[in-house]
Amino acid sequence: MKAAEIMAKLQAKHAEEKEFLQAAEEVLNSIEEIYNQHPEFEKAHIVERLVEPDRIFTFRVAWVDDKGEVQTNIGYRVQFNAAIGPYKGGLRFHKAVNLSMLKFLGFEQIFKNALTTLPMGGAKGGSDFDPVGKSDAEIMRFCQAFMLELWKCIGPDTDVPAGDVGVGGREIGYMYGMYKKLAREYNTGVLTGKGATWGGSILRPEATGFGALYFVENLLKEHGKDIKGKKVALSGFGNVAWGAAIKTNQLGGKVVAISGPDGVCELPDGITDEMIDYMLEMRSSNRNKVEDMATKFPGKAKFTAGKKAWSVPCDIALPCAFQNELSEEDAKELKANGCWCCCEVSNMGCQPGAIHFFQTNGVYFAPGKAVNAGGVATSGLEITQNAAHLAWSGEEVDAKLHWIMKSIHEQCVKYGRKADGSIDYVKGANVAGFMKVATAMLEQGIL
Ligand code: 2IT
Known about the structure:
Blueprint: H1 3-13, H2 18-35, H3 39-43, H4 46-50, E1 55-64, E2 70-81, E3 87-93, H5 99-115, E4 121-127, H6 136-150, E5 159-162, H7 169-183, H8 204-222, E6 231-234, H9 239-250, E7 254-260, E8 263-266, H10 273-284, H11 291-296, E9 302-305, E10 316-318, H12 328-336, E11 341-343, H13 352-360, E12 364-366, H14 368-371, H15 373-388, H16 394-416, H17 425-443
Parallel strand pairs: 3-4, 3-5, 6-7, 6-10, 10-11, 11-12
Antiparallel strand pairs: 1-2, 2-4, 7-8, 8-9
The protein binds (2Z)-2-iminopentanedioic acid (2IT).
(2Z)-2-iminopentanedioic acid (2IT) binds near residues 90, 192, 375 and 376.
């Protein structure tokens, strides 16, 4: 196969789907070499089948806001690939959600889930519902209306959604309640990210951020370095940045920045436990303003409107917010200010030009599908606990998460080691994930 030819066909077919095409191009370029060493892949048209989702559900979601007015949104579930297990992946509620965004996220999820070592296929869903400024009652009504359609598409052995941007424990609770009401089935394994008293795994809320820092630890160790005393710039202030901030502090790093759509908060003395707790309040307020941190902690957090976290000098940059949030210009600014490591925690957080710049200018770079896989991996552990009707201790979950992140790092090294000894983590993650899924597809016939 020629990656460029397949991409040209995809571009012609799905010209509007920019994010999906970007995600597909990165994977196809990475796997081209190994693919062509396996004529059986070519014969079975593995790649041509892999880039088309198994099925896509779209549906109308109508609900009534606090003023009594009717609102209409679109809901989606993209079931991308189930070669290695039931569909698994989050739900995103954000005003910019469209099919391209969910296809890119579902496609990434296939390879990420394969890297976790657990048997989970790839999926993603969500809605163009905008949580900003919504009351708790509006969030509940929207989640219930969304589940009125989604419940028929999912199930503990078919498709298990979880949270993503705009969907946290509160939203999962409202959706789970409605699922039980509609399906009259009480199997907790239908959604992950549940509350710890009703089937949720301990550490699932922290898992994406914790797992990311365990990956960073492995990467630094591989290069004879460690995180102690290093300055870490985080973007966002949501669930992922929150977990990353806690673990950075625990490992002896210093969080020097968090950010939001409104600007950046510089943290000259690092982030305290109180400030970390306040991140949760900022998120649940649905105001979407990082400036609130500076208002609450004057002197400790310095807010600058319109600037990104990447303007703050750091050793390690961790994008934790949204796709394409770090541009080539940002990468150059980071490097000029002394940054020498960037690990994507958000999905596809870096633009292709930024990745290229990092890789060709001596900045260690690792992609989201490896770095942030601890989140979905712990969702997988939640499914296991639900299936066995038991709950593991925090120590047990954390030990498994450690092992999984170490194993993901090893897979990246195995498939990403270059002739000069350096490691291409993008190639490593894509090839490792792809080989597992492609082999499963091959063994299961033409479908
Ligand atoms: O992007 C992701 O991996 C997630 N949003 C978590 C998905 C999950 O099923 O836990």
